[in-house]
Amino acid sequence: MMRRLKALRSLKNKVVLITGGSGGIGQAIALEAARRGAIVIVCARQAAVLRQLATRCMILSGRPAFSFPLDLTDPDAIDDVLTKVRHEVGEIDVLINAAGTGELVEVTKQSQAAMAKMTNVNLLAAMYLSRSVAKQMMDQGFGAIINIGALSGKIPVPSSAVYSATKAALIHFSNILRMEVADFGVQVLTVNPGPVQTNFLAQADPDQHFAAHFPAWMFISPEKLAKQIWDSVGYKRREINVPAYTAQLSWLYQVFPGLGDWTIKKVFDYQQNRQQL
């Protein structure tokens, strides 16, 4: 089984499907896969942006690239896209659930619609896609499923309760899925980045109150993250935490949760107070 999984260490002519491919981490993952010779499929709602990205991927890879507009909140639309991919491209070798949405405000100020959207896009769509594609990968005897979690899914951060909850649930889902498919040669990798240099924070937190709590050096390059992800595919690696030291912070929080809550609240309150001065 490990021998079959090793085949994914080279992406040449491998079929890679990426959700959230129209920008941010998903776009960086798509372009890096293309550089490594993959047949890239990108999915998101923005059809025109997707077509442009697919063209860039085709130029980089020298191989076909495809774009399928997709509303991840619609299970029937997901089924339709998977059927098209199977008929027009072939079986999927690697699935990357990179689509995500967020609204970073206190729970008491959050609407039910925002809560539902984050749950549907960040969690339910990834679970549904993983379930459907895992069946196919188990039949073919190898594959990789990469779910993009978040640092806040492991360490609680104020003003991100619902977003963090969806990511924590995705991490836990991935841990159990990993056990269920491992004997079939399927890798399940979770990626838990801290703040990334994309438009996500600007959209989720237009006033930039949340982003102001993080120093500039802590922001991660999506291109470097994409390379790290692809360098981990085809191995038994189960998780990527970036920056690396956040794995230790997560462990400390589990061991000393009370102290962790106090520290996190103190840091955020202190920085808020400094902004008001």
From TrEMBL:
UniProt cross-references to Pfam families, sorted A to Z: adh_short
PROSITE patterns (UniProt xref): ADH_SHORT
GO molecular function: oxidoreductase activity
Keywords, sorted A to Z: Oxidoreductase
Transmembrane residue ranges: none
Residues of the Ketoreductase domain: 14-154
GO cellular component: a single term: membrane
InterPro entries in alphabetical order: KR_dom, NAD(P)-bd_dom_sf, Sc_DH/Rdtase_CS, SDR_fam
Record-stated family: Belongs to the short-chain dehydrogenases/reductases (SDR) family.
Protein name: 2-hydroxycyclohexanecarboxyl-CoA dehydrogenase
Organism field: Limosilactobacillus ingluviei
Origin organism lineage: Bacteria, Bacillati, Bacillota, Bacilli, Lactobacillales
